[in-house]
Design brief:
69% helix; 142 residues; 3% strand; two-stranded antiparallel ribbon; 4 helices; mainly alpha
Length: 142
């Protein structure tokens, strides 16, 4: 993992620990969750003032967005890395969407879908036509 992703993952893990500490009614579980969250945040070099740690007052007024702590500051290299990963993801999504559309067009042609008709509707129409033809054959034989 990259340093940026490691920090984000550590932030999420610490926040989950603190959320558990806020939600439990057992003092030992609360203390363990708080200790674990603090340990994770310290190891990742995160500022504890950006978290809502149960039983701990913030030393400074940390900036927030609503009820969430402000995101950490990132270096230009970390931002570039994040944007490169996002762009790669979006390229992959675009390729997948193009592939899906090609498959859908090919399937519509295979089943003979008419304008505005879905593949399902075309398959149902074809089935009903074949069933009617089979009924007519059976009636002719009888």
């Amino acid at each position: 993992m990259t340093p940026n992703r490691d920090r984000l993952r550590a932030r999420e893990r610490a926040e989950r620990c603190f959320a558990l500490a806020r939600s439990t009614g057992f003092p030992a579980e609360r203390a363990t969750a708080v200790a674990r969250g603090i340990e994770i945040a310290d190891r990742a070099g995160l500022d504890l003032d950006t978290f809502e740690v149960p039983g701990r007052k913030r030393t400074i007024a940390a900036p927030t967005f609503g009820r969430y702590a402000a995101p950490p500051r990132y270096s230009r290299a970390e931002l570039n890395e994040t944007m490169a990963a996002f762009n790669a993801h979006m390229r992959g999504s675009s390729d997948a969407m193009r592939s899906f559309e090609e498959t859908l067009r090919r399937r519509e042609a295979e089943v003979g879908a008419r304008d505005g008709e879905t593949v399902y509707d075309a398959l149902l129409r074809n089935f009903e036509a074949e069933a009617a033809a089979a009924r007519a054959r059976d009636e002719a034989r009888a």
